[in-house]
Design a protein that fits this description.
Elements (H helix, E strand, L loop, with lengths): L1 H4 L14 E2 L7 H5 E2 L4 E2 L1 H4 L4 E4 L7 H5 L2 H6 L1 E6 L2 E6 L3 E4 L21 H7 L4 H4 L13 H4 L8 H18 L13 H8 L3 H13 L4 H17 L7 H9 L8
Parallel strand pairs: 1-4, 4-7
Antiparallel strand pairs: 2-3, 5-6
Helix pairs in contact: 11-13, 12-13
Length: about 260
């Protein structure tokens, strides 16, 4: 229905494939959230129940990125125009990628620019704290060497990982059956407390980490959701200390290295 509104279904055919959207970093706020004369849905709604991939994240305009904060929090994109006030669904899995600095060689002293590491701080500062607070998993991926390219494949291939993910999703479907919630990411309030409260050891770790890391209330609850999902991947009934520790390890502290 969303794709139809945007005029992106050829010959009126239906599609059952989950959407994947990868807008260019020159995309405007209206292109991401929605707008125009007829207030059409934007990229965040066209990716509803699918993946929104933003490559070279800091290259997007600050205004466009900050406009994603509300859809990422509520799962809805509100488009307000003089002649229309519309709400489009926008429950997406946001995946973003970026270099640590503009030149991309922050970790290589031989190739880094003359302004390193100051340039990295300035480049990463283009991302606002509230936006980063809505990103659950942050991974630092080092440069790939020639030895890495020639190494044997990992012991667990993509098919095996897919099976574990499918099993975890099945657990969540059963957990939230009969409600409007589909995954742990949508659980909130009392429901989140019911399904994601850690054991005593995990709760103690999370409390101390929240103080040390200066977590916001949003960040605290997002860690609980990630820990609950990690427990599902382990087929664990409860959230343990190890799940909380792993969820905390994915939380962003600082990018500059």
């Amino acid at each position: 229905m969303i794709a139809s509104l945007a005029g992106q279904i050829p010959d009126g055919r239906l599609t059952r494939a989950r959407p994947y959207r990868a807008p260019h970093h020159s995309a405007s706020m209206a292109a991401l959230i929605g707008g125009g004369l007829r207030a059409k849905p934007g990229e965040v709604s066209l990716a509803h129940l699918g993946v929104l991939f933003l490559d070279e994240l800091p290259e997007f305009s600050r205004q466009a990125l900050d406009s994603l904060r509300q859809p990422l929090e509520t799962g809805q994109a509100v488009v307000a125009r003089a002649n229309a006030h519309l709400t489009y669904p926008a429950r997406v899995q946001l995946v973003a990628a970026m270099n640590p600095c503009r030149c991309g060689h922050m970790d290589d002293a031989a190739m880094a620019c003359a302004r390193a590491p100051k340039c990295a701080g300035e480049y990463q500062a283009r991302l606002s704290g509230p936006l980063l607070d809505r990103i659950d998993l942050t991974l630092d991926v080092p440069a790939v060497s020639a030895a890495d390219l020639s190494a044997p494949p990992p012991r667990e291939d993509s098919a095996a990982v897919a099976e574990r993910v499918a099993a975890a999703r099945s657990i969540q479907r059963e957990r939230y059956r009969g409600s409007s919630i589909r995954t742990n990411a949508e659980a909130d309030g009392e429901r989140l407390d019911q399904v994601a409260t850690p054991d005593d050891s995990g709760r103690d770790l999370l409390t101390r980490a929240a103080e040390a890391m200066h977590l916001t209330a949003r960040g605290y609850h997002r860690i609980l959701r990630v820990a609950r999902t990690l427990a599902d991947l382990d087929a664990s009934d409860g959230v343990r200390r190890g799940h909380v520790a792993e969820a905390l390890s994915y939380r962003r502290l600082a990018f500059v290295r």
